[in-house]
Write a structure and sequence with these properties.
α8 packs antiparallel against α9 and α8 packs parallel to α10. The protein is an alpha+beta fold and 320 residues long. The two termini are 23 Å apart. α2 links the parallel β5 and β6. The strands form 3 sheets. The chain has a 4-stranded mixed sheet, covered by helices on one side. Strands 1-2 form a two-stranded antiparallel ribbon. The model has no long low-confidence stretch (mean pLDDT 88).
Length: 320
């Protein structure tokens, strides 16, 4: 904790010296205003900018001679790092512009607002005042439950419908959108007290919610790849299809109870989920040893199981 001495100014005011690193990080200089807000505990929070003001944070990125993967990586990084305006330079062909429009579908409220010559301008229209990480996690949860439901119904059939595999991929894209948004909010707020005030949270809770969202996104990927591999290797899994189905139902049950532990902040239930998923790991290892040709399928199930375990552990640690 940083301690500062109170200095009296005149008959009605007192002053303290603000830490230089905080002032530098906030981009403040001599003569700038700071804003004070009293919270419900009687504490005063010092903010570098008024919460209602949205300051544009701009970056220019050259995409000349960069492939699709590199382009997507740089735009994602700029979005997550909290840039409100992204100027893309060196876009010399229409195909590249089409690729960028495709990448933009990964983000909520981030749109193409201008095009001039070889340059494109992207702008964020999302307001932090509307942000609620718990609601975003619920949206991710709803999407994941939908993937589980589709996968379970398809695995009951003799042959999985390829259109359902595609539907799961599209739902997973929605999960990604909310994960990227949670990451963006986390990066903005992790060391910014004024944003934590807007979000009505604290640094520990913000990290926990982001980490939970991170694991949900990874879990959703595991579900997507699992059902794709089951679809591709249906002939190979006929003999143990019922065992895989039963294991998948157990994993879905663990997921449902794990998310309940998060919503209710139930540490007892979280501990039970950790034990439950540890037993599931033993089943996965056993089936994989007996069926080495299906290793990739069991790796995906293990990925799903692991994320359920990690989130249960975070619930336990947060409230212990």
């Amino acid at each position: 904790m940083d301690q500062r001495k109170l200095i009296k100014l005149g008959n009605s005011s007192f002053a303290i010296a603000l830490p230089k690193d905080w002032v530098d990080k906030a981009g403040l200089k001599k003569g700038d205003n700071v804003f004070l807000e009293r919270n419900g505990s009687g504490e005063i929070i010092v903010m570098p900018s008024f919460p209602g003001i949205k300051n544009d944070k701009k970056i220019s990125i050259s995409l000349e001679n960069k492939d699709f993967k590199s382009t997507k990586r740089e735009i994602r990084a700029a979005y997550i790092r909290g840039y409100n305006v992204i100027e893309l330079k060196g876009i010399k062909d229409k195909n590249k512009k089409d690729e960028i429009k495709k990448i933009l579908k990964e983000f909520l409220s981030f749109e193409l607002t201008g095009s001039e010559g070889d340059n494109l301008l992207l702008k964020d229209f999302f307001s932090l005042e509307e942000a609620n990480l718990s609601n975003f996690i619920r949206r991710m949860d709803n999407n994941i439950r939908e993937i589980f439901d589709i996968a379970i119904e398809e695995m009951k059939k003799e042959k999985i419908n390829s259109k359902k595999v595609q539907e799961i991929e599209e739902i997973d894209q929605d999960v990604n959108k909310f994960y990227f948004l949670c990451s963006r909010i986390f990066m903005k707020g992790v060391d910014n007290p004024s944003i934590l005030t807007i979000l009505k949270t604290d640094g520990i809770r913000l990290f926990n919610d982001w980490w939970f969202a991170f694991n949900l996104e990874s879990l959703s990927d595991g579900l997507k790849y699992f059902i794709k591999k089951v679809y591709e290797k249906e002939k190979n899994i006929k003999k143990i299809r019922e065992e895989i189905y039963a294991l998948f139902l157990d994993i879905r049950e663990a997921y449902t109870k794990g998310i309940e532990a998060y919503y209710k902040e139930n540490t007892k239930l979280a501990s039970e989920i950790m034990d439950m998923t540890t037993r599931l790991r033993e089943k996965i290892i056993k089936l994989e040893k007996e069926n080495p040709l299906l290793t990739h399928i069991f790796h995906d199930l293990e990925k799903i199981r692991k994320q359920i375990y990690q989130n249960a552990k975070m619930v336990l640690y947060l409230k212990y």
